[in-house]
Amino acid sequence: MTNRDRLLAIMDHKSPDRIPWIPRLQLWHTAHLHQGTLPDRFAGMSLRQIERQLGMGTPAREGQVFAAEQRGDVEVKSRQEGESTLYTYRTPVGQVQSRYRSSAELEKVGIQSLEVEHQIKGPADFAVVEYLLEHMHYIPTYEKYRQYEAEIGEDGYPLVAAGDCPFHHFLQKLAGYNNAYYLLADCPDETERLLRTMEELERERIWPVVAASPARLILHGVHFDSNMTPPPLFSRYITPYYQDFSDLLHGHDKLLCMHADSDSRLILGHLQEAGFDMVETFTTAPQVSCTLEEARRFWGNEMIIWGAVPSVVLEETYSEAQFEAYLRGVFRTVAPGDAFILGVADNVMPGALLSRLERIGEMVAEWGAYPIDAGCIV
């Protein structure tokens, strides 16, 4: 089987010949290219060629089924202030501003800037953001997606990003977590109105485009965390939205996936209830409190786990003995290997040891054939 075959088998609740090994290597690759520290044996090779050399599949995260197009009477201006880039959005009902900050250290390894100032500071900004959202349109790019899928070929299967649910987009992007929760408490009527508007627009403009697309694996939802999206709020604002969206996707032979580089321990049941089929870059202890064993016991084979190797165990802060013990535990936990894709949560970081990536490839070759025999891993 190829990595494409393995992913499709897992998506169809079938068994692959072996577990796929598909980490996100791009950040590691970009950092070493920028610093001139890429190993000599990879000189002149593309990222895809290096992935093949290391026995990995490609995560194929750049497929698109729509393009967002801002319409209406909107003027966007940007300017630099030191290490920050400020964006001002002017509309007929007012203006809002956001700020992204970078640093020499981040630029050195090719890591993108961080949003440190959000568009919504207070209730007065709601009308402007609503205007921007109401005049955002989504243009299908199905042919572009088909070309990308053909380009990926047998190395993987496209995971297509389609945004986030309205509540979490408001928390993370539009207002920032702290301010968003203050707004929800201090002006609930205005905040709820904005959230309803966002959901109506998503249902009307994004859902039909995604449902009719040729893509099957849809990433819609990121960073849900036991602390920042706790069970009561998850049940109120997130679960109903995804139950409807997942029903729509399932009716079109598609899977709903979440980017799970967060602590999911308290919301494992909520993710399943919401209708998610897969958690991607699933992060586990020691980076968060949730363990792979806990998630596997809770979900069984109902939820596809993609990840389970915390990036920290690939770095020198973890000894070789700790690394070996952790990975052996992963193989024993996921045996016989159903509903599982081995990956790194969230990324293979610049400090990851190449020898450990190679060692994981050896482990997959030695222990990863289906069905995995946990008794042989000592």
Descriptive account of the structure:
With about 375 residues, the protein is an alpha/beta fold. The protein folds into two domains: about 260 residues, Alpha-Beta Barrel (TIM Barrel), CATH 3.20.20; about 110 residues, no CATH class. It contains 14 helices and twelve strands. The strands form three sheets. The chain has a six-stranded parallel β-sheet with strand order 7-8-9-10-11-12. A four-stranded antiparallel β-sheet has the order 2-3-4-5. The radius of gyration is 21 Å and the shape is globular. The mean pLDDT is about 95.
Sum this structure up briefly.
The protein is 42% helix and 18% strand.
Element-by-element helix/strand order: HHHEEEEHEHEHEHHHEHEHEHEHEH
Number of domains: 2
Structural class: alpha/beta
Number of helices: 14
CATH class descriptor of the largest domain:
Alpha Beta
Shape: globular
CATH-level-2 architecture of the largest domain: Alpha-Beta Barrel
Number of strand segments: 12
Top keywords for this entry?
TIM Barrel; six-stranded parallel beta sheet; four-stranded antiparallel beta sheet; 378 residues; alpha/beta; 42% helix
Question: Helices, strands, pairings?
Answer:
Elements: H1 3-11, H2 26-35, H3 47-53, E1 66-70, E2 75-81, E3 84-91, E4 94-101, H4 104-108, E5 114-117, H5 126-134, E6 136-140, H6 142-152, E7 160-161, H7 166-174, H8 177-186, H9 188-211, E8 217-222, H10 231-250, E9 255-259, H11 268-274, E10 278-282, H12 292-299, E11 304-310, H13 320-334, E12 340-345, H14 354-367
Parallel strand pairs: 7-8, 8-9, 9-10, 10-11, 11-12
Antiparallel strand pairs: 1-6, 2-3, 3-4, 4-5
Helix pairs in contact: 5-9, 7-8, 8-9, 9-10, 10-11, 13-14
